[in-house]
Structures are given as structure tokens and as C-alpha cells.
């Protein structure tokens, strides 16, 4: 960590986006996490994704629970809304906020402890309900704030910093998200921004439950030999199924690629995901095949990354509940408080 | 690209832009830190070792360091390096005891120095402590050369010159003041082991246009007039004065004229205002004293009546550029302009003059400029015993160049007297030390000040114009000096990268406020520069490249706008980045002469 705030001085050629903001305008106060923490890289990737998508910072709500990962929303998007919830309860708060104001962009940041242990039920229900949000789990396999005990995502057989071997089966959040109906599922690595930034951009553009499991080495407690979430291990076992570019509707899409190697997926909002296939047979639209593939490769000791599943026309919670298109805070008093006559009428239908 | 060889002292020296740009390579950030720490005497001695005249240069230097200053590339203005130097001189107290002592015993060598200006005095400073018997000749009765004769006292008080020239005369040179050298041949015949010519560029260029002779009584050559003012021979000038020329001498002339009775003083230049040779701050100071600067006017004629100057006519011109970008001044065709005046000061350039050097003594002159042929590294002429420096070597430059020449010539003279090869130059001394004090503590102040450049307080204008000896700039007080010193980016505290320790976690990339660090595939420099996190378009600045890392990528750092804030090193979990102070001492002849 550093004590000093990041100096305001910046590169003289720093670019501005369509809103006139620089990337630096999307930063937050200086991080207090350990030096070299993977989470800080994910924060930087979020900053870059929001800058590149010309997102107005005040249209974003950052939500988190408890843990190292859940501290990070302080360190990015300093001009956005934020809510730091009780441990593991971020998904409920996000669900409620989303129902009240569907116009904001919801960005949930959680960790493997927050989402795979105490908040596992919350995580499951946010996914199965299809809350329109980006749900990022900063997954390091240990409880960093309490000095490195194994978390529920630690692999069986992985060795702790003090030499203890983990005997429990890991919870695979990607597998759960696929089973539970998330309409955008990806896995990435904090040490690979070339992959991570476009995935976050695509998730932000996705109009449904978008889940990213992001491996994020804990440099203090889980970056040693024997760890399966260290920089070296992840780099050695990383099997990316595709490489992604996100093209906004305004951008011209060029087609200078060999047939069969690239797939274009147009999302509901018009953004185009250009997938350069690294595994030719991998189909990002086949949920069942994706699950099988994940299991196979995990058994083979590989870490599959990339965009794993996407439904370009997702159905979200608002569609299921048939809510009105206007956020509650934009409705007038007459609509929000229709009076006793309306209540009587409603009650009559239930008698 | 090949991994950067940081063992080459020049690599990190170049990163210290100010020091690299300073002809005498003064370790600028080092003394600025000492000023911030209130250690003014230490800051002065570091300066004195490199540039010999800190108090003088702190007021008059042409400041090649400031346009080079990295701060000027990340915000509006560079650090006020020059005026901080003056602060060190103003508040140093008594440094007499820290000055080198005269040599215990003579080494038996005698050298003659022609001119007692900054170049010669630097040679004396470097060689006298080694035991050389230095004999200094000057036509004036007091030492200092152009520093004393041409720089107005309202910019540089006399006592500063006395003090800093005094530190050198105390080393025991034989000062033959008031003795002009009329023959180099005769001087060589006196059997000196070497002769150093530091006689300056003493001849002001004239302007031979119609009316020059008839109105001669009221037309003065700028540097001669300044010299007469300086020595008290002139104390008045007419009410309306025209100063011709756009250099610093012109600025000194017009401001002096304002103090000697000139009420309506104007500067008229041939070129455009922007292209004038005068330093921007000198132009500002002149304008602030109600002196208009009129441009694109070419002098045509001195108008006179009954043998008295009444004014000047000028032809109006405009600049046109040919295909090769060369400027030509062409008449606009508008009617000539006439300006009334009582006196004209001609400050249109200076020339060297060597009527006292015989052309048959084996010292070659070039045919085109009639200048002696002088080696640019050794400062030796084609006569092995004769060395040149300062304006006498390559034409008019500034004091700091004269000092740099003096140091280099002193090395050459020493090697020559020892019978060593002159082209074999001694390497600089480099001191490297990590600044790490704790996990995120450094022994330098790495917080970046956002303050804009502070202005030096000036004497109130009416008062300043009343007295030609009243110094206009009052200098920073210690508080202002501290605030200005904090603007320095400490570019000598280098970001040093150790490949083997890097785990490629990207922490440094994320925290770098100026996006200067990238991890990427290696490539040719030109192509690599285009795909860094921020394209490295400033080709004068190096790219620091590591060897291959575990992933096969390299670390590439664009040195251009690095703030030296050390956040990369604070964020690095493995210590692959370290902040190390590189103190580079350029070699001098008398390394023993300077105690810190």
C-alpha cells in the first residue's frame, strides 16, 4: 500500500473520452491494499472499461460486501454511487436497488469469501433471478484480511503459505453461475488486462446477470509454490477459449480474419462482441457444453478463461416481474401513492 | 531492443534533464533538496564545485536547465532553478572555511591566463590548488571580465562579484590587472608551460548605415556603453533613447538607459518578437519597466540635424519562409517609419577580436570567421601550449558555458603538463544509493507538489528606476524558496528495475500517474514506442528496457514524464523497482580542490 495519494499530474497526452473525461477521472482514492494485490489490477481494469465505454460516473452504483475485494470499490469510480453492505449481502442490496431504479448500471464487487461462503445463497439467487448487473468475484482462494486461511474456492490439494494442504472440494462459481442461469459468464485473471478489460466492458453492456470470476493472486498469502492461485500457476495453466473485442455501435467493424476463427455476437444494446476463437470448437452459446468443458478441463488441471457463455437476448428480473419501465424515483406522487380507492380495488380482486 | 545498460553513467545522467543540459553539469536536484532542507551552505558548495559562481549565476545565468526541466513537460512551467541557486548563495552564511586552501607547495608549473573573466577564473580555481602558478592578465583594473563590465549592477550587485572572484584570487594566483596582453608570441616567449586564452568577445558590432558618422556623438556601441556605465564613466543619457538589437545586451542597455534619464526608451528589432535572442524573462523585465519592443523594423538611416542626432528611420519588413524553412525578411512596401530620439544604443551583436595573436606562431585560424581553430573537447588550439575557453573559443555564449570550458581546459592543461593524452578524458564519479527507508518511506520527499511556479519578488518599480545600483530582483525568502524547491521532481532519484524480481503483477503500471510503464512484447525501438501504454513520442527521451521476464515480455519505461514519485516502487510487492539516487560528479582537474 502507499500513504501518498496518486499525484494529480498526468501524462500530457492523456486521452479524453466522448464525455470529456480522462481515464484518471474514473479513479478513486489511493488503495490501501497490499502492494501488488491482484484486486488493484481489477480496479484499474474497471476504471479503464468505464472510461472506454464513455460511462457517466454518476450513472454507476458500486456495491460490495466485506473483505479485501469488497474494499476495492472505494478505490475506483470516485464519482459514482456506492454501497458497502453486510458480509455476503451485496446481491440482495443490488437486487433491491435495481428494482427501485433500473436506469443505473449496477456493478457488484465481491470476493470468494463474500460470495462462496457467507453469501453463497445470495449469490445464487441474484444469478437465478437474472438481476441486471455485473457481478465480479475477485477470487484469490484465501481470506487475506485474516491472514490467509483457505476460502471455499481453494482447490483441493492446494498448499497454504504455511504448508497446510487443503482437503475440501472447491466451490466453482463459474459452474454455479452457469447452472443457475446467468446470461453472461466469464473467467479472467487480474494479471491479464488485455483479456479482462474487454470482458468487463462486455459485461457492462450486457442487459442481464453478468458474472465474471476473476482470479486475483493474494501476494501476501497465496502467491507461493504449491498455490493454485498464484501468478505463476495461473499463467502456466491458463487456457483461454477466446479473445474478445467489444465494439460500440459507433465503431466500424472490419472483417479481416480467416473464416471460422471469429464470431460476432450482437448484444441487445447494439454493442458487438468480436470473439476471436482460440479453441475452434468452443461454442459460447451452449450452456450444457460449457459446463461439461469446464469440468473436463478442471479435472485436467487447467484454468479455462475467456467469455464462457453469453445469451445476447437475456431476460432480466424486471421482465419477469413485469415492472414499469420508469424507475420508481422518476414516478410522480399519483403513480406512487394511488390512494385508498386504488387499494380497495386491488383488494377486491383478491377476495 | 537490448536491455538498457544502466551501468553507463550517461544513461541516468540524461534522465536528470537539468543536470544534463547544464554545460557545467551542476547536480541540480541534489542542491534543491538541500535548499528545501535549509542546508543553504551545503547547497552552495555543491554549486560552487560545479559552476564556480553560484551567486552570480543565480542572478544572470541563461538557464539552459530550465527549458530542459521535466516539470515543464507535465505542467506549465519548470522549476525556478536559477533563482533557487541564488537562494543558496543568499542564505549560505560564511563558507570561507569550506573553501579550498592554496596549494601547500608549488608544483613547478607556470601558466598564463589572458583575461580575468569567468573562463580564466575557472581554470585558476581548478589548477591553483594543484600547485600551478597561475598568472592572470586583464586590461581592466578589477577581475571579473564581462561579469563586471557588462552586466548592470541592478541585476548583479558588485559585492557578489567581489565575493566569488575573491574565493579564487585567495588561492594565490598572480593577478596582473591593468596589463593588457598585446602579443601572444611575447607571452609564449616568457616560458609558460601553457597559456589559456579567456579574453571573451570584446568587440560590439557596429551599424554602418547612412548618418552613422555624422551623428556619432549620440550613437553608442552597447557593450562599450554598458562597460562605461559600469565603471562610472557615464551617468546620463538623453530623454528619448532607441536601443537596436534583440539580445540580452539590448535588454541590459534599455533598462540601464531607463535609470540614467531615459524616459522614452524603446527597443527596436529586425526580427519578430518571438525570435529575439533575449531570454523571455529579460524581455518581460524590460516591458515591465515601460519599454516597448517594436519588431520587424530594419534600421535604414540615422537622421541628424546640425551634427546632432534627431531620430532614425526604419524599413517595415515581414518574415517569409522558403521551402527549407529559412527565414527571409522582405519589405512590406509600407512607408518607412521614423522615430525621434536623442541617443541610440547599438546592441546588434558581439565579435571576437584577436589582433594580439600573431598569425605566424603555429596557431591556425579558420579562413571563414577568422577564429582560432580550437578542439571542442580538449579546448587546445593548433599550438599545443595554447588553450581557449569562454567566448574566445567559439564566439559569444553565456557565463555558464565559459565555466564549463574552463573546467575542460583545466583538465587538458593538467594532462598536457603531465605529458598525458588530452583526448583521454577522466570519467565522472557516480554515487548510487537506494533511498528506501521502510516499506513506503524514502529518504527523499516523494510527494508531488502541485504548486505552480512562484514569482521572485521585485523591488517597487519607481524605486528601482531611481538607482542604477538598486537590485531589481529581491530573491526568494526561505519560505518561498522551500515551496519552490518542493516543485522539483527529484529526477536524480532513479527508478531502477531488477528483472529477476518482477512477478508481472501490473501494480506499477496501475499506480503510475503518468502511464510511463508498460509490460509488452519486445520490438524495434521505433515500433515499440508506438505501442506503450502512453505512446512515447518525445524521441529525445530514452526508453528504459528490461531483459525478458517470465512471460517473455519486457518492461519498457518511457523516461519522458516520469515524476520520480516512487509509487511504482511503493506498490511493487517484490522490490523489483527501487528508487536510487544517482549523484553524478563530472570530472574536474582538481578533484581534490573541493571539499563538500
Protein described:
With 351 residues, chain A is of the alpha/beta class. Helices cover 30% and strands 19% of the residues of chain A. Chain A has one domain: Thiamin diphosphate (ThDP)-binding fold, Pyr/PP domains (Rossmann fold, 3-Layer(aba) Sandwich). Chain A has twelve helices and 13 strands. The termini of chain A are far apart. Chain B folds into three domains: 126 residues, Fumarate Reductase Iron-sulfur Protein, Chain B, domain 2 (Orthogonal Bundle); 158 residues, FAD/NAD(P)-binding domain (3-Layer(bba) Sandwich), CATH 3.50.50.60; 146 residues, 3-Layer(bba) Sandwich (FAD/NAD(P)-binding domain). Chain B contains 22 helices and 24 strands. In chain B, the strands form seven sheets. Chain B has a five-stranded parallel sheet, covered by helices on one side. In chain B, helix 3 crosses helix 19 and helix 5 runs antiparallel to helix 8. The radius of gyration of chain B is 26 Å and the shape is globular. At the A-B interface, helix 1 and helix 8 of A face helix 20 and helix 22 of B.
Short description:
Chain A has 351 residues and is of the alpha/beta class.
Estimated structural class of chain B: alpha/beta
Question: Which blocks of ≥5 consecutive residues of chain A have pLDDT under 50?
Answer: none
Shape, principal axes of CA atoms of chain B: globular
Number of strands of chain B: 24
Beta-strand percentage range of chain B: 15-25%
Q: What's the shape of chain A?
A: globular
CATH domain fold name of chain A: Rossmann fold
Amino acid at each position: 500500500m502507499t500513504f501518498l495519494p496518486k499525484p494529480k499530474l498526468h501524462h500530457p497526452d492523456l486521452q479524453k473520452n466522448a464525455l470529456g473525461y480522462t481515464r484518471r477521472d474514473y479513479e478513486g482514492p489511493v488503495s490501501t491494499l497490499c502492494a501488488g494485490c491482484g484486486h488493484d489490477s481489477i480496479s484499474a481494469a474497471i476504471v479503464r472499461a468505464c472510461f472506454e465505454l464513455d460511462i457517466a460516473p454518476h450513472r454507476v452504483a458500486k456495491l460490495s460486501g466485506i473483505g479485501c475485494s469488497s474494499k476495492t470499490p472505494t478505490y475506483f469510480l470516485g464519482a459514482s454511487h456506492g454501497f458497502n453492505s453486510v458480509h455476503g449481502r451485496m446481491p440482495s442490496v443490488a437486487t433491491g436497488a435495481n428494482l427501485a431504479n433500473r436506469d443505473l448500471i449496477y456493478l457488484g464487487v465481491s470476493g470468494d469469501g463474500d460470495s462462496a461462503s457467507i453469501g453463497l445463497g445470495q449469490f445464487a439467487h441474484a444469478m437465478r433471478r437474472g438481476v441486471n448487473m455485473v457481478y465480479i468475484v475477485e477470487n484469490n482462494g484465501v481470506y487475506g484480511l485474516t491472514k490467509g486461511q483457505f476460502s471455499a474456492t481453494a482447490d483441493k490439494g492446494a498448499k497454504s503459505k504455511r504448508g497446510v494442504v487443503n482437503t475440501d472440494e472447491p466451490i466453482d462459481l463459474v459452474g454455479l453461475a452457469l447452472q443457475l442461469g446467468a446470461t453472461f459468464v466469464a473467467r479472467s485473471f487480474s494479471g491479464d488486462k488485455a483479456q479482462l478489460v474487454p470482458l468487463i466492458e462486455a459485461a457492462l453492456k450486457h442487459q442481464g446477470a453478468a458474472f465474471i470470476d476473476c482470479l486475483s493472486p493474494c501476494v501476501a498469502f497465496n502467491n507461493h509454490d504449491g498455490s493454485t492461485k498464484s501468478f505463476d500457476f495461473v499463467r502456466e495453466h491458463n487456457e483461454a477459449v477466446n479473445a474478445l473485442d467489444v465494439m460500440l455501435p459507433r465503431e466500424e467493424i472490419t472483417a479481416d480474419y480467416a473464416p471460422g476463427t471469429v464470431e460476432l455476437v450482437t448484444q441487445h444494446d447494439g454493442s458487438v462482441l468480436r470473439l476471436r476463437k482460440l479453441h475452434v470448437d468452443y461454442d459460447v452459446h451452449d450452456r450444457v457444453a460449457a459446463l461439461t468443458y469446464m469440468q473436463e478441463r478442471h479435472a485436467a488441471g487447467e484454468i479455462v478463461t475467456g467469455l464462457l457463455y453469453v445469451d445476447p437476448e437475456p431476460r432480466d428480473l424486471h421482465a419477469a416481474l413485469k415492472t414499469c419501465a420508469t424507475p420508481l424515483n422518476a414516478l410522480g406522487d399519483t403513480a406512487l401513492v394511488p390512494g385508498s380507492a386504488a387499494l380497495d380495488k386491488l383488494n377486491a380482486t383478491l377476495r | 531492443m537490448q536491455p538498457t545498460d544502466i551501468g553507463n553513467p550517461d544513461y541516468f545522467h540524461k534522465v536528470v534533464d537539468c543536470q544534463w543540459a547544464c554545460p557545467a553539469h551542476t547536480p541540480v536536484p541534489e542542491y534543491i533538496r538541500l535548499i528545501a532542507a535549509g542546508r543553504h551552505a551545503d547547497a552552495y558548495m555543491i554549486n560552487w564545485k560545479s559552476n564556480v559562481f553560484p551567486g552570480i549565476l543565480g542572478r544572470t545565468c541563461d538557464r539552459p536547465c530550465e527549458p530542459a526541466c521535466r516539470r515543464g513537460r507535465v505542467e506549465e512551467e519548470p522549476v525556478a532553478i536559477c533563482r533557487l541557486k541564488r537562494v543558496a548563495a543568499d542564505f549560505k552564511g560564511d563558507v570561507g572555511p569550506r573553501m579550498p586552501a592554496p596549494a601547500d607547495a608549488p608544483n613547478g608549473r607556470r601558466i598564463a591566463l589572458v583575461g580575468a573573466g569567468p573562463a580564466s577564473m575557472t581554470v585558476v580555481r581548478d589548477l591553483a590548488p594543484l600547485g600551478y602558478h597561475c598568472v592572470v592578465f586583464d586590461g581592466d583594473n578589477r577581475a571579473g571580465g564581462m561579469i563586471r563590465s557588462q552586466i548592470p549592477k541592478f541585476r548583479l550587485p558588485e559585492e557578489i562579484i567581489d565575493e566569488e572572484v575573491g574565493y579564487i584570487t585567495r588561492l594565490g594566483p598572480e593577478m596582473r590587472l591593468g596589463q593588457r596582453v598585446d602579443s601572444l608570441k611575447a607571452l609564449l616567449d616568457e616560458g609558460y608551460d601553457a597559456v589559456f586564452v579567456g579574453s571573451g568577445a570584446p568587440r560590439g558590432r557596429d551599424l554602418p548605415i547612412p548618418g552613422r558618422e555624422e551623428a556619432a556623438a549620440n550613437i553608442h556601441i552597447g557593450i562599450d556603453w554598458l562597460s562605461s556605465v559600469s565603471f562610472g564613466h557615464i551617468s546620463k543619457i538623453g530623454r528619448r533613447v532607441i536601443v537596436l538589437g534583440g539580445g540580452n545586451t539590448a535588454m541590459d542597455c534599455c533598462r540601464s538607459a531607463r535609470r540614467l534619464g531615459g524616459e522614452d526608451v524603446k527597443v527596436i528589432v529586425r526580427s519578430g518578437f518571438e525570435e529575439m535572442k533575449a531570454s523571455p524573462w529579460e524581455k518581460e523585465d524590460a516591458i515591465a519597466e515601460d519599454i516597448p519592443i517594436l519588431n520587424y523594423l530594419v534600421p535604414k538611416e540615422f537622421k541628424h540635424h546640425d551634427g546632432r542626432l534627431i531620430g532614425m528611420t526604419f524599413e517595415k519588413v515581414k518574415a517569409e519562409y522558403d521551402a527549407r524553412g529559412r527565414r527571409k525578411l522582405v519589405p512590406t512596401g509600407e512607408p518607412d517609419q521614423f522615430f525621434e530620439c536623442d541617443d541610440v544604443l547599438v546592441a546588434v551583436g558581439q565579435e571576437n577580436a584577436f589582433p594580439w595573436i600573431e598569425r605566424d606562431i603555429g596557431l591556425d585560424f579558420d579562413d571563414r570567421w577568422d577564429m582560432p581553430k580550437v578542439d571542442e573537447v580538449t579546448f587546445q588550439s593548433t599550438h599545443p601550449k595554447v588553450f581557449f575557453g569562454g567566448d574566445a573559443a567559439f564566439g559569444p555564449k553565456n557565463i555558464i558555458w565559459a565555466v564549463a570550458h574552463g573546467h575542460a581546459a583545466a583538465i587538458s592543461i593538467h594532462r598536457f603538463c603531465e605529458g598525458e593524452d588530452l583526448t583521454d578524458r577522466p570519467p565522472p564519479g557516480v554515487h548510487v544509493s537506494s533511498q528506501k527507508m521502510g516499506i513506503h518511506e524514502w529518504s527523499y520527499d516523494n510527494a508531488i507538489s502541485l504548486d505552480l511556479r512562484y514569482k521572485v519578488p521585485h523591488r517597487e518599480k519607481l524605486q528601482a528606476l531611481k538607482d542604477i545600483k538598486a537590485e531589481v530582483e529581491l530573491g526568494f525568502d526561505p519560505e518561498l524558496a522551500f515551496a519552490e524547491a518542493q516543485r522539483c521532481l527529484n529526477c536524480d532519484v532513479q527508478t531502477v528495475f531488477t528483472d529477476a524480481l518482477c512477478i508481472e503483477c501490473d501494480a506499477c503500471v496501475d499506480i503510475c500517474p503518468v502511464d510511463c510503464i508498460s509490460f509488452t512484447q519486445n520490438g524495434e525501438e521505433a515500433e515499440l514506442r508506438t505501442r506503450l501504454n502512453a505512446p512515447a513520442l518525445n524521441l529525445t527521451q530514452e526508453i528504459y528496457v528490461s531483459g525478458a521476464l517470465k512471460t517473455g515480455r519486457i518492461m519498457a519505461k518511457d523516461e519522458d514524464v516520469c515524476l520520480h514519485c516512487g509509487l511504482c516502487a511503493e506498490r511493487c510487492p517484490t522490490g523489483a523497482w527501487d528508487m536510487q539516487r544517482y549523484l553524478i560528479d563530472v570530472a574536474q582537474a582538481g578533484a581534490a580542490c573541493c571539499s563538500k
